[in-house]
Input
Amino acid sequence: MENSEMNNEKLEVCLQSSEFRNIVLRKPASIRNTNIGINTISFHSDLALAYKSFGYHASLINKACNFYEYVSYIQVVQNVEIQCHLNKGDIVTIKEVDYGESYAVIKGIFKHQNNDGYYYPFIYVDWFEDTYKKHNKLDCPIFVLRHDDYYCKIFPLTVIDKVQKAYFVHDCNARCKESDHFLENNHYLKNEFFFAAV
Output
């Protein structure tokens, strides 16, 4: 088998929506490199809620998850096919019934085998929470990156709203160095001035 085939898995991954197709999970990742605890109650309850969001209500038998660095797929929006790519670490806009339009950083992309024997793709996120304050010099909104389990962290791929990536920059303080951010400072600025050239 060629190396490129080993790094791409276009297999029995099922779709949670008819608007998504040709899902390809790419570059398998070790769970140790994700800093995600998959053997926790919150992980399994969030996964069960994610399944429930697209109609599966049974308790989950399988515990194993396979993680990947990125995923590509085609999303159909108003009869137009859009090629989408998501990478671990991307910041995306998510539209979810319980949260409205929110921002999150993708901490993990994984597939899980459901009780029916099929695999389903999911994302694991950390949420940005709006502080409703603005930076005193840049006039950009300040957000806090939450690493806790207060909000649900696992969602089906279908919650990504047309891969509208949002742009955030770390709100550096005196403890940040040029090439290394002080990660205990979880404040980020939303760059509202970023735009795509037409």
Observations:
- DSSP finds two helices and twelve strands in the chain.
- The chain has one domain: 3-190.
- The radius of gyration is 18 Å.
- Residues 25 and 71 are 5 Å apart (CA to CA).
